[in-house]
Amino acid sequence: MTENVFEELQHYVDFRDEDGAALRALHPIAQAHFERISDVFYRRILEHPEARKALEGGESQVGHLKVTLQDWMGSLLLGPWDRAYFERRCRIGRVHVRISLPQHYMFGAMNLLRQALTDILEESLRGQPDEAARLRRALGKILDLELAIMLHTYREDLLAQAARVERLATFGQLVGSIGHELRNPLGVIETSLFILKGRPAAQEDPRVAKHLERIGEQVGVANHIVTSLLDMIRARPLTHAPVRLTEVWASALAAVAPPEHVRVSARGLDALPPLQGDPVQLLQVFVNLLENAVQALGGAAGEVRLEAGLQESGAREAWLVLEDSGPGLDPAIRARVFEPLMTTRARGLGLGLALVRRILERHGGGIEHAPREEGLGGARFVLRLPLPPEAP
Ligand code: HEM
User: Fold this and answer.
1) CATH superfamily of 241-386
2) In angstroms, what is the span from residue 122 Cα to ligand 1's centroid?
3) Which of 137, 151, 218, 262 could in theory staple to 258 by disulfide, Cβ–Cβ 3.0 to 4.6 A?
4) Sorted alphabetically, which SUPFAM superfamilies does this protein's record hold (predicted)?
């Protein structure tokens, strides 16, 4: 946060030295209640079916967060409310942004803290209305400031996203022209390779044959990269045909050919009715997801599990959950995992999941990363795909 913003926010809530003094006077009164307040705070979150999804780390995470919230209340009332304080608060705000916590939860959460601390001071200063009013005013200001900082970090993130979109647009143009330019030389290499493979040297000398084979493989890899890049920037028209996902999954398994130490299972796909879609692009979805899952296991023995079923209420659609027993997604990229060029691997361009999302969305479906404590414990993706209306 720049100095300007920091000062502007302070000015906006009119936070002064006497407010600091009032907050310090509130600290000894409120401190004994911090533990109870943090219990109520996280109980409320856990009771809320949507908000609780943020607490994916389960009980141990909640235990840790309760302690951090108590520290947070301590520093809220003791200050000093200087630049370092605001920088720390910004960092906390960015933690919430990073885990994609919806901004609107912040209002309710801050209100709970406001109410709890106000109740304590009213109770303790009964009979001293002026003092209670002084502390209440200061508390109101600092909590407004906290909320403003939280919202500021969301705004920062939004601006960063807009800058990324712009970068991607430039990237798209660049990739489009480089991709097309690369197709020609790759085509020439392929033709020459075909001719060389028919020459006597390729039959007589096994080393020549081996190297020609290698060149062929690498041209294939390069072509695949160019195709993925071009797919990313231009939407290939969707074909519409009846598609059975169980067949698509079988083709994906055959294409990826997971090694023996990876146990792959699928449940519920057979029972799904056919949907209308593009079989080739849907195959790409499963190939990319399966490749990612296998790579996440990093050569270790493990499991990849796919489950599917029909949505019980609401829109007529199929859901699919694909999870693996790998280490799970790096928290630092969790929120951006579907963005192009987002990868933690040394190899690969980070287009796989971006393409998956693009294809599913063009089918009217979607995908989200929704890890859970139970299950295999690694990455877990939930996919949705609409189904055609039931025949009358
Ligand atoms: C006024 C509101 C809130 C305050 C003051 C607050 C405070 C904090 C603090 C101090 C941290 C630790 C940051 C760090 O690691 O440095 C944190 C992290 C976290 N908060 Fe909040 N929080 C608030 C609202 C919420 C809400 C509403 C939720 C969930 C619905 C939530 C979920 C989390 C989670 C999951 C983390 C840990 C993220 C991670 O490390 O991966 N917070 N919060």
Assistant:
1) Histidine kinase-like ATPase, C-terminal domain (3.30.565.10)
2) 27
3) 262
4) ATPase domain of HSP90 chaperone/DNA topoisomerase II/histidine kinase, Globin-like, Homodimeric domain of signal transducing histidine kinase
